Amino acid sequence: MERSLFRYIIHHTWRDQILLLVVTAVSFPLIYINLEIPKRIVNNAIGGKNIPQTFFGFEVTQISYLMALSLLLLVLNTVNGGIKYWLNVYRGTVGERTMRRMRHELYEKVLRFPLPQFKTMSSGEIIPMVVAETEPIGSFIGDSINLPVFQGGLLLTYLFFIFNQNPWLGLAAVALYPPQVYLIPRLQRKINAL
């Protein structure tokens, strides 16, 4: 077995992690478009300003433009939800597969114990111990690389959208992060100590 859990994860799941990262990267532009469409609905379609003459090659009125944007928003929400669902299911699958491999390797290691060791321990004691020790690792394996990238990418996508709308609003949003980065770990240490 590898000395580090992250090495173990990368060694056994690097293909799956790359696939998860590619799908995650594809989802960010869709999320940005999903943020942009409601703004267009409110400002252009409902406000009646800057309505294009044609939309995807079709002539549009205010109502048809509003309907087209609403339908596009519905489709994008469905696609984004499908991508998030697929990512969650695939992360779980990767975690379960890798956990099964890890359990198998641990069973092999246990079988290398000297025979007198098994006289003091029953098999009903060893198997639940291996299962219980590896269970929390299973969900971590699938989430270990992809989830931080996904959450960080979401944060950057939202910040990019906010800065595109109004730089002052973006600065106000970013201004809240340094106090949080300073305070939350210190408060968490105190809570953990209690």
Q: Write down the overall mean pLDDT.
A: 86
Main beta sheet: 2 strands, antiparallel
Helix content: over 70%
CATH superfamily name? ABC transporter type 1, transmembrane domain
Description:
The chain is an all-alpha fold and 194 residues long. The protein has one domain (5-193): ABC transporter type 1, transmembrane domain (ABC transporter transmembrane region fold), CATH 1.20.1560. The protein has seven helices and two strands; from the N terminus they run αββαααααα. The protein has helices spanning 5-46, 62-111, 115-120, 123-143, 146-165, 167-175, 177-193; strands at residues 54-55, 58-59. The protein has a two-stranded antiparallel ribbon. The protein is elongated and about 85 Å long. The mean pLDDT is 86.
Short description:
The chain is mainly alpha-helical and 194 residues long. The protein contains seven helices and two strands; from the N terminus they run αββαααααα.
Helix and strand arrangement:
Layout: H1 5-46, E1 54-55, E2 58-59, H2 62-111, H3 115-120, H4 123-143, H5 146-165, H6 167-175, H7 177-193
